[in-house]
Amino acid sequence: NAGVTQTPKFQVLKTGQSMTLQCAQDMNHEYMSWYRQDPGMGLRLIHYSVGAGITDQGEVPNGYNVSRSTTEDFPLRLLSAAPSQTSVYFCASTAGLHQPQHFGDGTRLSIL
Amino acid sequence: SQQGEEDPQALSIQEGENATMNCSYKTSINNLQWYRQNSGRGLVHLILIRSNEREKHSGRLRVTLDTSKKSSSLLITASRAADTASYFCATVFYGNNRLAFGKGNQVVVIP
What is the pLDDT of residues A70-89, one digit of tens each? Predict the structure, then answer.
């Protein structure tokens, strides 16, 4: 049972480049989220989805897009990378907000 | 901010001692959750406590919730070196379907 799988694990981008962070879960969870973690800031919610075809903004959505075409996948797109988006990105899924969240191991992203 | 805030933010203890961390929040919650993060890894769920519960146990972990004080505590008894990690509280607020995390609490257990 793989749980939540994030790819890539590491990525270096140049300012202005775009890329997609992949997230897949095999637990048939309806609820998926993307967080970014910065030193001293804890985890901040970027976007989340309560089911296929439904997404909503979190605390820090600017510069990111998401889509949810299937229950399993929830990719995060950086439209035009900026140094301020250097961070560790975590994807999580849960069966509901009264249930534990399952996290991937993260993507470490550096923007030069 | 609606986010929970952990206290103390850094804790260093000897192996075998108990470690207590607190989390405070500002508005009414649906539930409160505690997570652990080992260095370089994702977060792992420890305990979820609902707003109508006052205490929950899981192995060496004990979580309490005081909704009148808007606070929760996580107690790790008989700590081990493997408990060295960051610990986060996270809350789901009424009328909101998001999980908001605090900034975390770094615990170092010295063998």
Answer: 999 999 999 999 999 999 99
